[in-house]
Amino acid sequence: MNRREFLQCAALLTAGSGVVPDTWALTLEQQTYLGARGSYLDRVTLTLFSGEQRAMVAAMSELTIPRTDTPGAIDAGVPQFIEAMVSAWFNDEERANFMKGLAELDRRANGYLRQDADQQLALLEALEDEASDAEWFRMGNTMRIWDSNAPFICQFKELTILGFMLSETGARQFLTPNPMGAFDGSVSLQPEQRTYSTQTPMRSVSPPISAAEDL
Q1: Buried b (16+ CB within 10 A) or exposed e, 178-197
Q2: CA atoms of 26 and 10, how far apart (whole Å)
Q3: Most buried residue among 21, 37, 100, 171 by CB atoms closer than 10 A?
Q4: Ranges under pLDDT 50 in the chain
Q5: What is the pLDDT of residues 34-66, one digit of tens each?
Q6: From CA 128, how far away is CA 123, in angstroms rounded?
Q7: 184 located within any domain
């Protein structure tokens, strides 16, 4: 299992979620690994952040995904997810970048937690504007969380969104199941079948239809 695959498993275990992004095609090795493990956050003691850093991350994540008529980041356990990922699953370079960014944000704000919510949000938006030319924002760059050179604000946003979408709260109270199911491009033909219909989405809700039968 390579690092990208292991981090995918780590994210799923940390969030304890039953939802898997469509872009994550889990290998048999990953499925076996996940099936044998319980929720990571139920077994780990989080010690990386100080109490003030933990409160900063909670405030920042809630500003990124606030509670409205659906749950917010804190409701979904995102702050704990972020600390667990940075502590146990980031490499040294990624971890150092994140911790440096968190400290610099606090210094820049002259105490991030001493600011009101509007000022805190303005600081996050300023960081995002300053990082707008980063590779992280490039169209089609879908594996940004494993970019060791990503600016701090990009790391933070990726972890916040990932933690929320993989949480049970996010999956059950925010996301809506796709009634058509997920597309699987690796469904094998049966011996008596010749080819699939070009109407591939129908394969997720009904048996495959051969080209001859479709005509």
Answers
A1: eeeeeeeeeeeeeeeeeebe
A2: 12
A3: 171
A4: 1, 13, 15-23, 145, 199-215
A5: 555 555 566 667 889 999 999 999 999 999 999
A6: 9
A7: no
